[in-house]
């Protein structure tokens, strides 16, 4: 498993920059730089955005990602080389509020087409606890007595206040489909010569996401508990969509440390709500999850927020990893 670093050194960034962006699609040359490929060049901020661009763009796009495989997206600091390559591209697809350095670079870039996924669906407020069905609400103090916490300034001085809401929209297949439709329309407008193909590819992707949504609905319909525990609050949308309650050790940011009171609270919740498993992630340290599990006699397992695909991922793309997540949730929640 990849253990998350607090920050990336300047030396490491230089090495990454020397390699250019990570090329994600087989349609383009591994050595091709954004801006000179002869196709519609799309820079994506991280894997869920790159996946949309690839599926919708098909053979007409050259997709590059600002976030390297195995790199925790929240950690990303864009290099000067990446900024220059961004400016040479035709479009940028990103999710405002997740990666401040990306937001800043795209905001200052003259790139013609800027597609913010956060504007293509409604964002909600989530904290360490989220769920209780599909009625989305504003941030509040929950029944356990802890307040939702959204503000956090990281070691680079970026303010991760998530004023627009929880950015983890891709973990809800319904919201991800809404974003896909918006991206498809943006591609059609920016590259009208291939609009028909973009429209067709978008429709196919949305249909696949609708099928995934149905798998989650039926797969989680009969369960013995609604509560699951995760390392950070990435699964609030998924919890609300399927009537579950996510209890996170930390908040929306993976690097926030839980208080002693929060750990005791989770121990109590686990006992009262029949929690069997503490979930950890592939790109974040499993230390907190294993410590809590050891203190409470619970099991641990992976629930992947699909922020990047690595050799440790339980699947080769978004759909495979999400189906692996469904299997893990069914086991943890006692679904029949």
Molecular structure report:
- The protein is of the alpha/beta class.
- The chain contains ten helices and ten strands.
- It has helices spanning 10-19, 47-57, 80-87, 100-108, 173-190, 195-219, 236-241, 260-272, 287-296, 318-333, and strands at residues 22-23, 40-44, 61-65, 91-94, 113-116, 129-131, 227-230, 245-248, 277-280, 299-302.
- A five-stranded mixed sheet has the order 1-3-2-4-5, with helices on both faces. Strands 6-8-7-9-10 form a five-stranded mixed sheet, with helices on both faces.
- β9, α9 and β10 form a beta-alpha-beta unit.
- α2 crosses α5 (173-190), α2 packs across α6 and α5 packs antiparallel against α6 (195-219).
- The protein is globular, with a radius of gyration of 20 Å.
- The two termini are 30 Å apart.
- 45% of the residues are buried.
- The model is unreliable at 1-34 and 133-162 (pLDDT under 50).
Which helices and strands, and how do they pair?
Elements lengths: L9 H10 L2 E2 L16 E5 L2 H11 L3 E5 L14 H8 L3 E4 L5 H9 L4 E4 L12 E3 L41 H18 L4 H25 L7 E4 L5 H6 L3 E4 L11 H13 L4 E4 L6 H10 L2 E4 L15 H16 L3
Helix pairs in contact: 2-5, 2-6, 5-6, 6-10
In short:
The protein has helices at residues 10-19, 47-57, 80-87, 100-108, 173-190, 195-219, 236-241, 260-272, 287-296, 318-333, and strands at 22-23, 40-44, 61-65, 91-94, 113-116, 129-131, 227-230, 245-248, 277-280, 299-302. With 336 residues, it is an alpha/beta fold. The strands form two sheets. Strands 1-3-2-4-5 form a five-stranded mixed beta sheet, with helices on both faces. It has a five-stranded mixed beta sheet with strand order 6-8-7-9-10, sandwiched between helices.
